[in-house]
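User: Structure please.
Assistant: Input sequence and predicted structure:
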Amino acid sequence: MGNILTTIKRFLGNKNTVTIIGVILCILVLYIGYNYRVKQATTPVSVPYAKEEISSRTQITSDMIGYREVSRNVVNESDNLIIDANQLINKYVSYGTTIPENGMFYKSQVIESNEMPDSAFADIPDGYTIYSLNVNLHSTYGNSIYPNNYIDLYFKGVDDTGKVMFGKLIESIKVLAVKDGNGNHVFETNVESRTPEELLFAVPDDMYLLLMKAGYITSHSIEIVPVPRNASYSANPGDTLVSSDVIRDFILAQSVTLPQNETTSTNTNNNNNNNNNVNNE
């Protein structure tokens, strides 16, 4: 036993032997590590894909989703790729996006229901009304007005003396949606080209009445003109205000303000009291 230990000590005490053993161990470590990395990179990962083309604003259901195996490298190269179907089911394809058949899903393509474009209509504050402005490709500056842009509305008309009136009527008004003649969102798809025919805004009730009255005045060639502004204007919006008292007064002078009926509840109560008296008799 002693001879064996002495032999081992002499063997390990040889510098050349230690060097060779060290080199062999390094090679083994590199080999094992390399094979581990290769295995990790090439091991297939199951990811969801679209079994059919899914257009924008469509709710994603489980029957639209298939699964395929892809290299882990594909997953590692994109932080945007969705690998868990639970992140898809009952969510919606984003505004302006179409997921092609057999295409994989990416986080930027999928949104929650409260992020849908028309969801803004459901969150309009009390005392506000949706106003629709008729437009065309020319008046939107070649389709350059987008949802969530803040723009100005200018007034164009002719006064009683025949002189042209032109000036800013409303400033810093938010565009909720841009739609075509069929009510489709113009920018929701890149598959087809759509022509804008209406801009939708949410405005206070008094501003809504002012804009509607202006639109119904035909004797003075009145037109409401949308005017886009720069990115800073939308990024730092001011209050939505009527800019010109002169133009507002001109519009109001061409129309009649009808009083609100405030006696409905009183009349209803009186009718109820009369009915009660008849029943008591």
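The domain at 44-115 is CATH 3.90.1210.10 (Type Iii Antifreeze Protein Isoform Hplc 12).
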